[in-house]
Amino acid sequence: MTLTPMDDRVKSGRLEAARQFWVLARYWLLREWRTRYAGSALGWVWAVVQPLVTLLIFYGLFGVVLSVRVPGLEAENGFLLHLLAGLAIWLPFSDAVGRGVGSLVAYEDFLRKQPIPAELLPFSAVGGSVLVMGIGYAMLLLVAPLQSVFPTPSWCWIPVLMGAQAAITLGVTFGLSMAHFLWRDVGSIVGFLLQLWFYLTPIVYPLAQVPERFHLWYLLNPLACLVMCLQSVVLGLPAPAGTVWALVAWVVVIGVGGWAFFRAMKPALGEAL
Fold it and tell me: Are 244 and 250 in contact (CB under 8 A)?
């Protein structure tokens, strides 16, 4: 089948639009990374200090004071690794959602003056959390051998889990940023939901300490599926049957659904501007 001149023009137009979007995306990502810690004395050091302080607080409270242990994990300090695996998922997710939910509202005046793709704003918020994600995973993989948990072939699945984490984070951020622009109460509700979501995810407690009759309910929590898969891949902890398939379903539902909602409501965004 040969392409007509019209087909060539459509194809070249799409390629040019994609190229322009990528140029703008790189600019906004660099801007996000440069301004995130601008003006602070420690600068980029905060990207390491904040996760480390969070880790120490939770470890001190749950690992030392409450003496939480992880059944089935043969390691010198199993709870520390369990906590690291959970925070590697949670910290970049909460960071991206916390910054991204208000991204459209924060740049409302800018969008009126500069016709840029609105998708760039929540996208750059998620992109800005990539450093937090990298630090979280690096801490887990560096500390694991020190606690006698050595690399296995299952660690090859880590990049796949990171991709699934990025897709879910993007979907949630796209959906919530548009919802918050249309209904301003959403931003206040998200703060409470994130607190509840954290404790409904097996991060500061092992799933083994939850009555078994509740285990399947955790499959309704996409972050719990991510955390349990990472704990299984890196630490060898058992996950409820169907966890992997539940994660695949969540990637499709949230990743595609969040983007579809954003695109469907974009005309309303244009009218409001």
Answer: no
Three-state SS across the chain?
CCCCHHHHHHHHHHHHHHHHHHHHHHHHHHHHHHHHCCCCCCHHHHHHHHHHHHHHHHHHHHHHHCCCCCCCCCCCCHHHHHHHHHHHHHHHHHHHHHHHCCHHHHCHHHHHHCCCCCCHHHHHHHHHCHHHHHHHHHHHHHHHHHCCCCCCHHHHHHHHHHHHHHHHHHHHHHHHHHHHHHCCCHHHHHHHHHHHHHHCCCCCCCHHHCCHHHHHHHHHCHHHHHHHHHHHHHHCCCCCCCHHHHHHHHHHHHHHHHHHHHHHHHHHHHHHC
In order along its 273 residues, the chain shows pLDDT tens digits of 455 555 555 566 567 767 777 888 788 888 777 777 666 656 667 778 888 899 999 999 998 898 888 988 876 688 999 999 999 999 999 999 999 999 999 888 888 877 788 899 999 999 988 888 999 999 999 999 998 899 999 999 999 999 999 999 999 999 999 999 999 889 889 999 999 999 999 999 999 999 999 999 999 999 999 999 999 999 999 999 999 999 999 999 999 999 999 999 988 887 766
Residue with tokens 């499959």: 219
Closest C-alpha among 45, 28, 29 to residue 37:
45
